[in-house]
Every structure is written in structure tokens, then in C-alpha cells.
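---------- Forwarded message ----------

FYI, see the Class I SAM-dependent methyltransferase record below. Original note from H. follows.
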Amino acid sequence: MLAQLPPALQNLQLPLRLRLWDGHEFNLGPEPSVTIVVKDPQLVTQFTHPSLDLLGTAFVEGKLEMEGSIGEVIRVCDELSQALVDDDEGDQPIRTVHDKDTDAAAISYHYDLSNEFYQLWLDQDMAYSCAYFQTGTETLEQAQHAKFEHLCRKLRLQAGDYLLDVGCGWGGLARYAAREYGARVFGITLSKEQLKLARERVKAEGLEHLVELQLLDYRDLPQDGRFDKVVSVGMFEHVGHANLQVYCEKLFGAVREGGLVMNHGITAKHTDGRPVGRGAGDFIERYVFPHGELPHMAMMSARISEAGFEVVDVESLRLHYAKTLDFWSKRLEANLEKAAAMVPDQALRIWRLYLAGCSYAFAQGWINIHQILSVKTYSDGSHGLPWTREDLYR
């Protein structure tokens, strides 16, 4: 029966078993830890060129099933793809149009899936962004709390500061800044479902006098320098390369002289922003983040500088995000039955692959995440930042 497999598969030594639609099984190495159940006969010939996009798409469309822990599935499928597919084959920078309607639709597709679904695997504050692990032993809740604190400290937030939160999500950071620092917060999002729940939580905590949340596009932000500080978490990935300059200029117009701006977002491995190899980026673009474009850290820093800011601090949190995503993936896997009752089967398949796959991608260094702090200097070039970072770690 081995002869029925394409020759390219016969010489591999992977902990992988292929089970065909007719019940026949083929081990591609000793002691398989993962089984791929092929339900569509046409897939067998495509296994000679198993890009991560091909494998992910087949799983999402129900043409194959995968047995084994989702983390091990991702690892073994990557080894299969590495053995047979060129890492950079066909990868080109993604270039898409980013107008207001397109961006609103893309945000709605991703974030308006189901608040209850996100609550299954996020922390209590529903912080859907990289947590901050000071020792690596924290719970997810502790690490997300530490992330909020880390951002507020970097912004040198003080009572009475007027903080703009761009892409405020479910409002966890906005509430934290108001509750713990006494800041006034204006948060914006394009997700109606996020906004509804975020406002409910602001009201429940009695923070309506400090926190205002609106459905607003960043391109419509006031340009009168009314904000003391700006924080943008997980936002610039949705802006698009072509609009990064406009995005940075809008933030420049929104913040006062001497004000600080924190951009926290996922960054590309390649300087031209093309997606990671063997189709993983293509899968994410199609199924997870439509129209998402990751800039390299150098590109993002350049756009920030060209808008008039001075970049004063950069920190990579790559391994922090690998750990965060691993937490999310394990929480989702532990609640698959509940999740299946909340979202369509295809959506659940997408999210299982996405969370586990992204954890693997960050751990492998395929993508990164950076916090980039900048300042809008006074006309004489001065600013009010401390001379050192010591205040951040007291």
C-alpha cells in the first residue's frame, strides 16, 4: 500500500500518520504523535506540496481532520511543510485597499464574532493583546494586569491626564487607566459588539465620568492636540502599509506638544512586510485578519518619525506573545464543546489553528511584536521624559 503514496512522502521520517478515506493508514515515521485523516481523495496528490495554507484551508473546509494536541499538530505540519515546500516560495508583500468601509467590515468580521466566544478563552478583562510576563510564572490574568500597568508606566500616566485609546477593544485598558491612575479616557473602536460590552463594563464599574467610548475611525480623530497621551494596542496591524503615514499623522494631530504616544503591535519578520513563508501568512489574511498588513518595526518607526514624533523607546515582547497565545489556545481547547455551541464549525476550526499556529509562529521568530514609545516634542526640541528608565521598574 505504501506505493499508493506520492514518492515525495515515502522517504520522510516524521511522527505523522496519514489515514485515508477508505481506512488505509500510512506512518511517515516511527511513533506518530499526529494523525491526519484525509477525507477528500484529491488531497493526496497535493500532499507533495503541503503548504501551511493548503493544510489549514483543507482543515477549515472539512476536507481533512487532525488528531493529536493542537500544538503538536501545528509543529508536525510545519515539519511536513518544511520538508517539501520552499520557505519563501511565492510570498509577496500583501497590498490591499484600506478605506473606511473596508476597514470597518474587516474589523466586524474578526471582532464581532461573539463576545461570549472570546470570554471563553480571554482573561476576565478580555484583553485581546500580548500579556506581559515579569517572571514567566504568572497566570494569564496576572500577566494582562501587568501589561496594563507596563503601558501606563511607559506613558508616565498621571491623574487628570486625557488619554486617547485607539482600538480600545472591550475597554480593559481604558478602565484600568481610569480606575488605577485617575486618567480621563476617550476610547475608539470599529467593533459594535466590543463597544456594547465595553460600555456595559464601564457603567458597571461606575467609571462613566472618566471613560467615554465611541464607534470612530482613526481618520476622524480630532486634530486639535487635546490629548495628553495616546495608547494604541493591536491597532496598526489593521491600518495597511499605504495608510501608516496617515495613521501616524492623525495621532500627531491628536496629541499635545510634550505628549507621549505608545504603539503596541505585531510586526513583520521581513523588512518589506511580506508574510511568513510556506503560506501561513496567506491563511491568516484569508480567514482571520482580512486586509491585515504587518509592517516591519523599521517601517513603523520610520512612519512615526516622518509624522513628526521622536521615537524614544522600543521593546520586543515576542516571547511574551508566544506564551499569551499558548494560554489562549489551551483555554479554547478546554472549552471546545461550549465554543461549538457559540460559533459556526468553520469559525471554530479557524480559531483553533490560528491561536495555536500564532503561538508557534512567535516562538519560532516568524513574526514579532513591539512597543514603540514616541514623544511629540516642544518647539524647542525638549520634552518632559525622565533621563533614564528607572522609574518604570520601581
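H. also flagged this: The two ends are 66 Å apart (CA to CA).
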